[in-house]
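user: At home tonight, take the chain set out below, taking as long as you need, and be ready to discuss the fold:
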Amino acid sequence: MKQVISIAPDGSMHALKQCNALDLRAFGRADIRRATLIEWDADLQAWFIRWCDPRLGEGVWKHEDGRVITFQEYEEAVAHEVATIQTMQRAGKLAALGAILHCVQAEA
């Protein structure tokens, strides 16, 4: 999976904290916060994703019809989480938050 790095007009950098990704601490002080939690549902016997900050989204990730989005494999949930957040990042939907949750913000 490719790393997406956004640079805001104020010079701050935003990116998901991922394994084997560029460490933005090399560019300055990092502010790292969690964007989501991937949790196990014993009743559904599946993984699901929950937002940690209401500015990003509300609660558990759901389909348009209201059903919880579930994943049989943890790795599937991680891939979906990263793809969704990177799509939001590319669309500029995360810039207004300042330090991004579960992402790195490094200031030059």
Remarks:
- Confidence is low (pLDDT under 50) at residues 99-108.
- The first helix runs from residue 74 to 90.
- The two ends are 26 Å apart (CA to CA).
- The longest strand covers residues 36-41.
